Amino acid sequence: MACRLVRSPMPPSASGDKPKDEDLAQTGIAAAALMGLAGVLILLGTIAVLARKRRAH
After folding, report:
1. CA distances from 26 to 45, 46, 55 (A)
2. How far apart are CA 33 and CA 49, in angstroms?
3. DSSP 1-57
4. Residue 10: per-residue pLDDT
5. Which residues, 6 or more positions from 15, have their beta carbon under 8 angstroms from its beta carbon?
6. Is the pTM of the predicted complex or chain greater than 0.85?
7. Which sequence ranges are marked TM in the entry (predicted)?
8. Residue 22: exposed, middle, or buried by beta-carbon count in 10 A (0-12, 13-18, 19+)?
């Protein structure tokens, strides 16, 4: 999954124009991908902890 973020040198507030819909959509997709990745890591960590507890008993 390759995701390339294109960033303008100046933030939208500094340049005075509003961000384009495509930029907002791309930012949203990137944020969703990061949140999904974080969720997967949490899930894997939980499984690892539960497996450890189960093996200890």
Report:
1. 29, 30, 43
2. 24
3. --------SS-HHHHSSPPPHHHHHHHHHHHHHHHHHHHHHHHHHHHHHHHHHHHH-
4. 61
5. 8
6. no
7. 29-51
8. exposed
